[in-house]
Amino acid sequence: KAGVTQTPRYLIKTRGQQVTLSCSPISGHRSVSWYQQTPGQGLQFLFEYFSETQRNKGNFPGRFSGRQFSNSRSEMNVSTLELGDSALYLCASSGDPGTGGGGTFGSGTRLTVV
Amino acid sequence: GESVGLHLPTLSVQEGDNSIINCAYSNSASDYFIWYKQESGKGPQFIIDIRSNMDKRQGQRVTVLLNKTVKHLSLQIAATQPGDSAVYFCADTVRSGGSYIPTFGRGTSLIVHP
């Protein structure tokens, strides 16, 4: 079956702009989590959505937001981009996150802010 | 400004050797632990997990050891192969809102020489 699909794969934005990234989970998975990966900070949890509700949130400013649709697809938005937002953004989907397993990751969206 | 790349610990081994990758965590409340493998250009891939009520778990060619007293995890890879070359992350997780929320280690780069 198809894996987790993230679009676009690469994105270049200008400081101050906003950006929306998309994640299509594995069919049947209702949980989608988002992560930011940078050389300086490593891999960090952003937030998790389950059945269209944000269930958990990491320690990121309010410029980072997300949502989940009824088909479980998820988007994350970053407003007023800063140079430090340049990162690989990863999403992971899970059928039942309560059983563990960490979810299945997509290949990420590489965002560069100039 | 110029970004500074993360200097990951690196483990270089010969093909066929056993590899041991170590990870420390700080949260005493963590109750579930995961090891991931990340190849260049891809998202993290689940390798093996272990719950806090266990101290050892074995998979195919991999073994995870957990020492809760000193908050230490290790991943042992038997008969390391060139295809094992990747960055390896540990994650300790806490249960929140029906999910396991991870905190990731900084990663170790494993290089396997043929």
Description:
The complex is a heterodimer of chains A (114) and B (114). With 114 residues, chain A is mostly beta strands. Chain A has no helices and eleven strands. In chain A, the strands form two sheets. In chain A, strands 2, 4, 5, 6, 9, 10 and 11 form a seven-stranded mixed sheet that branches. A four-stranded antiparallel sheet of chain A has the order 1-3-8-7, with no helix packed on it. The model of chain A has no long low-confidence stretch (mean pLDDT 95). Chain B is an all-beta fold and 114 residues long. Helices cover 0% and strands 55% of the residues of chain B. Chain B has strands spanning 10-14, 19-24, 32-38, 45-51, 56-58, 62-67, 72-77, 86-96, 99-104, 108-113. In chain B, strands 1, 3, 4, 8, 9 and 10 form a six-stranded mixed sheet that branches. In chain B, strands 2-7-6-5 form a four-stranded antiparallel sheet, with no helix packed on it. In chain B, a hairpin with a 3-residue loop joins strand 5 and strand 6 (62-67). Chain A binds chain B through residues 4, 31, 33, 38-40, 42-45, 48, 50, 55-56, 58, 83, 86, 90, 92, 94, 97-98, 100-108, and chain B through 1, 3-6, 32, 34, 36, 41-46, 49, 51, 89, 91, 93, 96-107.
Provide a brief overview of the structure.
Chain A is built from no helices and 11 strands. With 114 residues, chain A is an all-beta fold. In chain A, the strands form 2 sheets. In chain A, strands 2, 4, 5, 6, 9, 10 and 11 form a 7-stranded mixed sheet that branches. In chain A, strands 1-3-8-7 form a 4-stranded antiparallel sheet, with no helix packed on it.
Mean pLDDT of chain B: 91
Query: Which consecutive residue ranges of chain A, at least 5 long each, have pLDDT under 50?
Result: none
Main beta sheet of chain A, described? 7 strands, mixed
Structural class of the helices, strands and pairings of chain B? mainly beta
Count of discrete alpha- or pi-helical segments spanning 4 or more residues of chain A: 0
Strand fraction of chain A: over 45%
- Give me the count of strands of chain B: 10
Q: How far is the first residue's CA from the last residue's CA of chain A?
A: 37 Å
